[in-house]
Design brief:
The chain is an alpha/beta fold. The chain has six helices and five strands, in the order βαβαβαβαβαα. A five-stranded parallel β-sheet has the order 3-2-1-4-5, with helices on both faces. 4'-phosphopantetheine (PNS) binds at residues 9-11, 38, 74-75, 103, 106-107, 172-173.
């Protein structure tokens, strides 16, 4: 029997409950879901690659058909290497649509074998983004309920770490 593998790519800086919501939804639709962390993003992340990988791993530990991996280079090349048929992306609001459409169509142009599947997170998370989580945490606000507890803890540690900038980077969602 054919197993359908999907890739859920992103920068996950940090993983939020919105990401987790989408991972749970995706895990019910696909036989296997690979949460794929982009290694070399143009963005300057708050959390290192290894920190994000470890947080993601913890977050999905109890979902049997979900794994976490990293990738470099083009998403379509990685997806084909993983025998994936689909890329999963979340759309929270109309504002996400333009960027996501552009990416989905460009990925289709690069490799028509790959389909992008959009899912909507629970409406509770429709205003939630990693960028806002970073900003709130850096400015001393509470992110309780917005991120998994282990991420909340890591954010507290990160803020108190000497050398961490006290202003969140603005260039990622
Ligand atoms: O969480 P993000 O930052 O919105 O995720 C963006 C991501 C990682 C999905 C996107 O930047 C990506 O796929 N990068 C890999 C390089 C690539 O394939 N670029 C062409 C996209 S059309």
């Amino acid at each position: 029997m054919k197993r359908v593998i999907a890739i859920y790519p992103g920068t996950f800086d940090p993983p939020t409950n919105g990401h987790l919501d989408l991972i749970h939804r995706g895990s019910k639709i696909f036989d296997e879901l690979v949460v794929a962390l982009l290694r070399n993003s143009e963005k300057t992340p708050l959390f290192t690659h290894d920190e994000r990988l470890s947080m993601l791993g913890e977050c999905v530990r109890d979902i049997p058909n979900v794994t976490v991996d990293t990738f470099d280079g083009l998403l379509v090349d990685y997806a084909i290497r993983k025998n994936a048929k689909a890329v999963l992306r979340g759309i929270r609001a109309v504002s996400d649509y333009e960027y996501e459409l552009q990416m989905a169509l460009m990925n289709r142009k690069l490799d028509p074998r790959l389909e992008t599947i959009f899912m909507m997170p629970a409406e509770t998370y429709s205003y939630l983004s990693s960028r806002l989580v970073r900003e709130i945490a850096m400015l001393g606000g509470s992110v309780h309920g917005l991120v998994p507890e282990l991420v909340e803890e890591k954010l507290k540690q990160k803020i108190n770490q000497p050398g961490t900038r006290k202003k969140a980077p603005r260039n990622s969602r």
